Structures
1.
Amino acid sequence: MTEFDAASTAVQAALDAGARYADARVMHRRYESMSARNGDIEELTQDESVGLGVRALVGSSWGFHAVPDLSDAAARDAGRRAARTAAASARVPGPPIDLVPSEPVTASWASACEVDPLGVALSTKGDLLVEATKLVAEHGADVAEGLYQVWDTAKWFVSSEGHRIDQRIRECGGGISATSIGDGETQRRSYPSYRGQYGTTGWELVDSLDLTAHAARIAEESRALLTAPLCPAGETDLILGGEQLALQIHESVGHAIELDRILGWEAAFAGTSWLDLAQLGSLRYGSELMTITIDPTIPGALGSFGYDDEGSPAVKRDAVREGRWVGVLAGRDSAAVAGLDHGGSVRADGWARLPMVRMTNVGLEPGPHTLEEIVAATDDGVLMDVNRSWSIDDKRLNFQFGCEIGWEIRKGRRGRMLRNPTYTGIGPIFWRSMDMLSGETVSWGTPNCGKGQPGQVGHTGHPAAPARFRDVRVGVRA
Amino acid sequence: MNGPHARSEPDLAGQVIELVRRLGGPATQAEVVVTRADVALTRFANSFIHQNVAESGVGVRLRVHADGRTAAGGGSVVTADGLSALVERTLAAARLCPPDPAWPGLAPPAPTPSGAPVDEATAYAEPDERAERVRAFVAAAGGLDAAGYCRTALRSSAFANSAGHSARGRTAEAAMDGIARTGGADGVARLAADRLADLDGAVLGARAAAKARAAADPVELVPGRYEVVLEPAAVADLLQNLSFYGFNGKRYAERQSFAEPGVAQFDPLVTLVDDPLGGSGLPFDVEGTPRGPVTLVDAGTTRAVTHDRRTAAEVGTVSTGHAVAGGATWGPMPRNLRLSPAAAAPAAAGPPAGESEWVGGGDLSGAVVDPDTAALVAGVRRGLLVSDLWYTRVLDPKSLVVTGLTRNGVWLVEDGVVARAVRDFRFTEAYPRALGPGAVLGLGRRPVRQPDRVDGVWWEAPALRLASWNFTGGASG
């Protein structure tokens, strides 16, 4: 029995059990990660998981069942159970559910991959991490860490509407960090990002990072931070590096425009959103420099795919156009509830999880400046880069971020290094204060986005470049 | 279920060890854990069930140590071919790894304790039974919007290693977590239990609704230090962060933890015990080490941190049974931590015999829905009652400075009485300092078990009164 056969069997069983719509995904994922610490390999793990998840719509209710078994009997049983679970939901029924149209397609899609990351010898990958972390330790860090992760996912999707899609998506990435331990605190510097940079790409991404070339710098910076002056407290101009701005986009825009949150479907756990659908198309989200797109078609970015997990094709759309809120991340059911005409942003983190609204690549279109031009144009401010901590309220308004490193900016020049830089604000007020934006865009990958119950880990991408924000509160501390 | 997935966990574990022996040779050390999981979750929002899911899965985790090198592998494919492939690729990976001079060896044979009894009705609960609790929660919310979940989980696990040690265990858990919402204000009720029968959707829904109604029309207060009464859901966040960053044996070994065994780092009212068998929990860890209660803080004095075999060897002690998959990177940490309650009842009396402690009788209503909290609030001259904490993140792991927000209700308390609802605050606080000597002004007498995002992980605490909590910003920034 092929994977498509198993999925088709599950769908048919759900229909036979009373579902008015059903879809099923078979997923086969291989995962490999290796970590090193202070010049030694710390852990090597290789996992392989295969299974089937089937989703059934009965009346106004969804049911979902997943099994690690692709036999005919298991697939039929999963389909029946999904329908039965959906029927149980009718004890507490909601409004009718429709699905916005998704043209049934038969298609195959694969992400680009120059160097198969699982084909690179383990010894080569291990040597890289050993060498890089040894260098970090030799240059003074107390704890030197290195990590890479690889996901190789094949999936086969079938729906009762006639979708039949197979995809192969290869993702990988990695990074290094240096931690120095002082008398009552620790300081960390990472390259290129905390836990690394990731993409829908091959091992060429890790090669391009040139980890060893940055080992000495981050070690020395982590030690220097132990004695650097604290980031001053107060309101000032804030320049954010691209890596930090990527997370700012993720937390204060990406999650806020998820339609399931706007509709209240994530209320108890992930939270809701400050956005009101009645203001879609008119709300001023940020300054005119702010154009945010939802674009799963970006080659190599971590949120890229050919089709989402409902069979909708990858399409680029606007979320915020010149500061005005114009778009959402949606699935076929949430879009129908909201009266919108498209989904396309639904994914699951494995065969055992229900597909849900997820960020794809949500990123900031580039601006006209360079970072150096922004610094040169700033009389008094702070430059912060590389995220250290992140927190935002359940409506995605009040945020506080900490960065690994800061520098004071005086009269257009970068001055002293600053320790424990933090900044805080309210999303739309913050975005409206953006007055300079660089064009030095990088698509940062976030492989650890948590959402949903049972918990799911999403992979998202965030094109971002350095930018300046006026009169931001910085230096919050205990 | 037919086919390979019908074979028992001990059979599968034994087969993997035999394959390692055959393919890797008798000198290869190996340990394997096979876990079968049936996890189901009924999720509701806007007062209806919108997601209703179930997963039946089996996972195999293998770690081998051959010729001084170590590698781990895992998977869900338990056919004969699948297990052979797992063993072959894990052995191959180990051969290509650099030497592992800190390998601590395998757990020796040892008796495994009995876990908490498994309630079969919970283990095999039907979707209708979860849906019925959701229906009761929604009905008790009395027209307020309700959202949350009801979860049941069964895990059956077998361990075997090439040193001759084997163990097996089963655990079941149920949890319910819901909010009621009105006018932008939320109230929460959250509970984990060994038995689904112990979760009463109506009681939880009524509690959440009472708190939501009491949270309406909040005012914004000036940020600053306030005395606080934290309800068990909020205290759970303190326990989780203390566990992950403070009582983590790896962080301790690397001097990244605040923990200093033998030092009175906490208030004398603070006693913390990690008690994996005190509720739903397997009786051994992924290295096969038997699990049991570990006292981490005894009347304010830090006594221990948790270890797996590797961190224990590093600091010259023994494993406390806290090894987890991936723990070489993250470290061994408590995941079933209990803050011991007050030894005697606080000022207020408990509920009358036969009356629920969750929604007490008499004057217990609105923001305060249990006698524990009422007693602690009664002692506050001016402070805040906090239901829940949200999105907490560590600014510095060693000092354990954490930022986050209040959620699901916060109220101003004046002269021992809840005066009015307050808008959510952001805080930035060092958790060990907040619980330090002289900082704890009172404890409730009844601990309430709080579920984690992952079944099998729970945090149990009574309400807690603290002298000071550093609120650094209001909802307007």
Note: The two ends of chain A are 60 Å apart (CA to CA).
2.
Amino acid sequence: MAEHHPKGRLDEATNTETVGHEWDGIEELNTPLPRWWLWTFYACIVFALGYSVVYPAWPMLSSATQGTLGWTSRGELDKDMKAAAATRAKTVAALADMRIEELPKHPELMRAAVAGGAAAFRINCVQCHGAGAAGSKGFPNLNDDDWLWGGDLKTIETTLLHGIRQPGDDATRMSIMPNFGSDGLLTAAQIDAVAGHVLSLSGKARGNAEGAKLFADNCAVCHGPAGKGSRQFGAPNLTDAIWLDGGTKDDVVAQIGKPHMGVMPAWTGRLDPVTIKMLAAYVHSLGGGEQTPAPEPEAAATP
Amino acid sequence: MNKPPDMTQLSLYAKREPVFNRRIDGKFRRIKWAIMALCLAVYWVTPWLRWDRGPYAPTQAVLIDLAHRRFYMFGIEIWPHEFYFVAGLLIMAGIGLFLVTSAVGRAWCGYACPQTVWTDLFQHVDRLIDGDRNARMRLYKAPWGPAKIARRLVKWAIYLAISLATGGAWIYYFADAPTLWTEFWSGTADPVAYATVATLTATTFVLGGFMREQVCIYMCPWPRIQTAMTDEKSLTVTYKDFRGEPRASLKKSQKAPDVFGDCIDCNQCVAVCPTGIDIRQGPQVGCITCALCIDACDRVMHDIGRPRGLIDYATLDDAEREKAGQPPTRHLKLIWRPRTLAYLAVWAGIGLALLFALGTRVHTGLTVAKDRNPPYILLSDGSVRGAYTLRLRNMEGRPRRMEIAIVGLPGAVMWTDDSARADAARTLTRTIPADATLPLRVYVVAPPTTAAQDFTFRVTAEGEARETALSEVTFDTPQEANP
Ligand code: SF4
Ligand code: SF4
């Protein structure tokens, strides 16, 4: 170690040996490191060795050494998740006990529910409704104020629980629009006329008498005589500016001829009731949420 | 000069040479005492000063409230988004170091650096317990026995007590000091407090008690930066070799005063040096310019009837002048040089800018984040809605009512997620709690034919015209997509 460098010579000013190289007239002094530095270095090595014994470290053929502490990153995550669940437990319990209509009376819980719903939405709903819940053609935009089945908390929760057109769920949202074209119920010319009438309802086209008549005979049952739609059947309002399946003449003609009817999973059983409540709160919070209507005693009396 | 090292003994690793610096009294020693007392007093007293901020804010004058992300300094309260004040202060501290270095050399190292202050303190403990230089050297060489062990234990206990009292005091800057004090000593404080105290006590104990000059020479980056910053015009502690050399013992030089210089090789300058170096070898990284060697040598010069200042604060340039027989330049003139003035200008510029920002800042804040996904929503009546998340800040210690208004965007109204659409209006008011941020999700709805455009949210504290914050944002519409 302490070899005398053959080219090393004593630096005049400091009396220190040089390392024997010279760069542009600058020589490096062979100043010894302090010994505590060496001991610090050894201590680090000892620490590292100890560390690799207690924590997983050494690669073996199929996996790595386990470490005597039994630590795993998965276990760590598990602990974190459990801790997070524990901090959420109170909120979750409160939400589980509460009817969703009561939620607006508890702003703290509402906020928690909206935040939880936003997270759940990102996992379960974005595939169809998009990351911003803005939907796309055929997939409803959940931000706007147009609701096929209703936009209050309770109704949104029901939609989530039972889905849309889900076979096997008795309470699912079910509505069917006939295939007027492909089943031969209306001729192409008639469909064209009805489409013209439908577009006239929102001022998008000039109306026509034949279309109005055909509408009254075939469509008013669900969409209402004025085309205002019906939430009972999930029939869209045809007089507003929002067109789920497109608002051009071609779109409307296609929708009458062979309607596209969206489906949505029933989330009962796939998501726990609290998560579904949270999702409903989140969707309700997007800007189009409606007040829950006060229960009407007469309506309850006449089934 | 030094003996050449024995090459066969030269190791890659050198043992620390213990420093037994002698007690010395003198002008600079007294300045050092005063600065140490001042530093420690400021450090200890600051967290205990009170400052009344009303019922909604802490009453500690200087408080770094990490939990609530606030920084209180007397009448000033810094919010996280105003961190540029802290950044500015740090930059000023950095440039301040350059400024000081340029003007008076390593004054920071010699007087104010915590490492210096602590080393100094611990060296006094050494003297108190083990005696002055010679006694300590004797004890160092003495074999371990009960007496030596007892002395060491007493000394280290005192080190530890000082470390606890100084390093440990740092926590009181981060919480209400009297409360934390009680909690700390009753064992109910946060574990973080104990961990911090333990860490800082341990580092003070090791760095101040044992590492000492090793920190300055091997661990601290500052001396390295300084060696690049100092030049022949920098004020340093200089041994005037033209006057001292050739040196000889007092006896010899008295016999031949014309042959020998003023240095009588009494080694007093080396004996008092806290880093254990010999300043007569010229400027070196180990010299922290504490000037204790000046005190020592001045005393020697006084005793042998020579003028003081064989070792003195001087620039190398000035030493050359003196060597050439010219009178020394006055210190003030050494300090005022272009480089110093340039640093001063930058330093003061930043300081004034910060003061200006402090004087003109309002205690009302607004940041707006626009929803980008989706950028707009078409509503069933054809009108267009945009969503914005507003954060209203009330930076005063009392709740304040504020009015939020839409400026521009004709025909637009807004409502929030805590109000009904039926109540939509051009303005709305909210009460923001004291010293708090109120998040508010705002829906702005504009008539069907509105074109995409920018508009402004304005927040005004009620009855305070100056307290206004504006934020300009975009309103997107479908028309924008197909113009
Ligand atoms: S204290 Fe002054 S006289 Fe004594 S050795 Fe140092 S420089 Fe020389
Ligand atoms: S050489 Fe003098 S000024 Fe430098 S550290 Fe030692 S005593 Fe202080």
Note: The interface with chain B takes residues 1-2, 4, 10, 13, 15-17, 30, 32-38, 107, 130-134, 141, 143-146, 237, 240-242, 285, 287-288, 291 of chain A (CB under 8 Å).
3.
Amino acid sequence: MTITTSARVAAATARPATRPPNRMRAWATRAPLLPALVFMIVVTQLPFVATLVISFFDWNALYPKDRHFTGVDNYRQVLTDPDLRHSVWTTVLLTATVVLVSLVVGLGIALLLNRKFRGRGVVRTMLIAPFLVVPVAAALLWKHVLYNPEYGLFNGLLHYVGGPQPDWISNTPLLAVEASLIWQWTPFMMLILLAGLQSRDHEQLEAARVDGASDWQIFRHLTLPHLRRYLELGALLGSIYIVQNFDAVFTLTSGGLGTANLPYTVYQSFYQAHENGLASAAGVLVVIGSIIIATFALRVVSSLFREEVSRA
Amino acid sequence: MRSQSRRTPRALFAVAAVGTLITPLLAGCSGAGGAGGVGGGSAHAINVLMVNNPQMVELQKLTSDNFTKKTGIKVNFTVLPENDVRDKISQDFANQAGQYDVATLSNYEIPIYAKNGWLHALDSYVKSDSGFDQQDILAPMRQALTAADGKLYGEPFYGESSFLMYRKDVFQKKGLTMPAKPTWQQVADLAAKADGAEPGMKGICLRGLPGWGEVMAPLTTVVNTFGGTWFDKDWKARLDSPEFKQATQFYVDLVRKHGESGAPQSGFAECLNDMTQGKTAMWYDATSGAGSLEAAGSPVKGKIGYVPAPVEKTDSSGWLYTWAWGIQKASKNAGDAWKFISWASGKDYEKLVGEKAGWANVPAGKRSSTYDIPEYRKEAAAFADVTRDAIASAKPNDPGVQPRPAPGIQFVDIPEFTDLGTKVSQEISSAIAGRESVDSALKKSQALAEAVAKKYEGS
């Protein structure tokens, strides 16, 4: 796939202007890459093909004798199941909220970190820390250390100032999950945007200052357009990962109170219902949705690379 | 430079890349590694797949120096967390792969697996193994591990029921009396009076965390004793019956008024925590909770009283749960597998654990003789008899006021229940959080139960 194209490009560049196809040389370029391609197909594509096949079967693990082919029945069931439709909506809402808020907050922090001050390295390291916490540990931390109405830090602080004692997760379940994810993903966005900020053209900035542009104007007309690609990259990479998020939903609410997202629903139909066919069909649909997102993501990334190349 | 017109390779690349990102999600489900490997089939070796509960971990430690030394049978353990173990067991047993000879199964799985023909009947082994003393196993356990065909398919390793735990000191201070056999109405009144007995103390802790084995377990016992049932004997779903509604409304109201805060996220572990930290005056849950409350170093050790599960229309309402050993039908080492089960579930093993690891760690709740061991009685004085009576009075085949189409107290013993129970539990959890009414939660749940019942109607 990718290899053949790059090989083709390589072959094309290696090819003299005359016509001989020179297959041997092209294969010589390809051959060392073949084991890697075969390995990748075996470990990533074959399980997916298996999943695809299973998704056309009515197969409940507890009724092994009843396994039979049902065509697209599983897909019909998945698409007409109100719970599942709801979980699709939850996934969209969760992903969009987390990505957008993380981006905005990340941008703010990145702008602050872009200034020179003492101890900048330490602050940056500390700000990255949440992203390095194991997701399930982070979710547990939020559930018990922060949100818990009895001994959580939030209510402890409120108690200290004499405020109310809300039951965070029960009152705002989706928001509670989003908040913990935003905390985890803001550093990721910050890193990407910080890299973008550091690659700004300083001469351009100075010229703008000489011309009397205000800070806001510089941000609005120079920084933001320059950051557009980085914002897109952050949003798309973030989306791909957060669509798949399972830990926070599983740990904080066990999918209750309307927080079940797609991965959690797939998990449930596989583990609780033992519906291998249904779970596979739902999984395949998640893959299709992610492919759509990823196609955009890769397009952005490749245009980024193109820009880098043309700049170089 | 690539031209923009050549989309296909890039689309393919996208597919490949996404495949890389996502397939682990789908394929990784079965890839959980376990501790210990599966050994080769030497003359005398068996492979055991078990859940990673403390009692099993203790068993693993004691096996080679005792069981293997005595019999020469090597035991290869694979130990996994509950969800993974269930998945691995169902895959191995469903395909009759024969990779594992023995597995830990609960009384929920054993009748279902037996019906599918995945398990070895144990009756002949029990008959010829006089030292095992099958009659010593508590009757409800024997019943729960006997399948529809009347044959025995599992031997319990340890078992539990449910009962009500309360703070004797708090009750005394407030001048409250706990009846010897409380009704739910009495418990609700006591919860109202005990609420706020100490700063930050709630009246009662009841599970609200979604899950067929979390909120659904205590709630279903309440439903049973209020006269409700999931299905009547003709497989008609009855979640919309007045009794089911009344029980659910009662449970939800009690938790919302006098229960722990954060109830929709509280399961067994959270309630145990609340009880230990003095955040609640009462707790209705598994008898196994008592061991932790009375453990050395527990701040409430010795302050807790134990009474049977509260009732309304039935004589008893405690649930029944056990982790038991089952032998896979395809196993080629059934004889050796039975020897292992006979040792692990036998009387001598309980004494061995008592001497080696302390009497509090004995896998109790399955044999009546356990409760006659003086050392154990001393260790578990506060809750031993109540626990035994709770298990002994459990009626897995007749837990309510009406005949049932399938056995099970806190669950309905059909393969679909894990999914149905979990989906219903999410509605109940929403009701406890005050996000929807009990009526609308049960209306949705009834529709789910009806869909399941369709499969069984007329059977």
Note: The radius of gyration of chain B is 24 Å.
